[in-house]
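Supplementary notes (optional reading)

For those who missed the lab, this is the record we used. Protein: Renalase isoform X2. Length: 394 residues.
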Amino acid sequence: MTITIINYKLLPFCLCKSDPSIDTTTMSNVATKVAVVGGGISGAVCASTLAKNGISVTLFESARGPGGRMSQRREISEDGKELLFDHGAPFFSASNSDVLRLVHEWESKGLVEEWKENFGSFDCISKKFLDIEQEAPNKKYVGIPGMNSICKALCNETGVESKFGVGIGTLECLDDEKWSLTGLDGQNLGRFSGVVVSDKSIASPRFTDVTGRPPPLDLSLTPELALKLQDIPVSPCFALMLAFSEPLSSISVKGFSFKNSEILSWSHCDSSKPGRSTASERWVLHSTANYARGVIAQTGLQKPSSAILTKVAEELFQEFQSIGLNIPRPFFMKAHRWGSAFPTASIAREQKCLWDRKKRLAICGDFCVSPNVEGAILSGLAAASKLTEMLSCL
């Protein structure tokens, strides 16, 4: 197996494996098994990049599939129709050369397309659309046929073994410089030469607030990183998924933000994206953070009940109807809570990930670089670079 060192500016000061004259086929015989925790775009990019550099990767994701906030939600209407929604990130843009290189690679594989539609904003006081973009300054990219398609492909690449529906109970650093992972059910998940954590909740006090259990990653193991990981601020929101029998002809754009609404933040027409079914018109709306905080203050951080979500869905839809665009009643309506998926801080903007070389522990995610998909990708690349450098020198 030949190691191809990725073209990334944070990659190695160590040259022991970068000389093409050196036979690197034995690298896989060294203890180069890495665990990646979290199957969002940051973890998926990291896992894929490590695998391309000859490192064996096992990815663990507690959800049924990959994606994180790039997940695609599958719902069934009362009359049996399948409805798919990108209920987290509606699209992403890219300007960094390393990210654009990946995006172009994904485009060539049919995983990504540009979403060419007009976007704008709507003023809820004047009842008018404003700032309609005829040509956006940055391209808007979407996964094909869903936002999660990119993560799915990355998690299925050669060298990546992905295990979904597996929550991590503990990550233990052993005396022999190895890591031992245990599942939430107590199952031994194996030993690894390094660990990448792309799920910030796994090392956060918030984990205890939600589950009643201590965080799987004991931050006393990494005192230098612990302070940075404490109480990363997040922006909660509720997503509302709507399906209509007919197009909403009164809306002249396919995505818009709300001005002067205390309840709604933005909306987009999911069915207008390339590669999507147009059998029905589907919209996704996101609430404001303040609205979500108000609901959480009353109901708590635990998973919201169906009654709470039904109430939230009705309140968000009533606000949508009240803007004066003659919005009919949808045949499908459902709310989802994003409790901590959207960070509002960047804790490692320069380094792009947190790294403990001695313990071979990297922590990556959009909360390290910038709170968007591009930031998550950059952080995943940085984490892969750190471990590739370290393990190629063993």
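If you only remember one thing from this example: Residues 1-31 have pLDDT under 50 and may be disordered.
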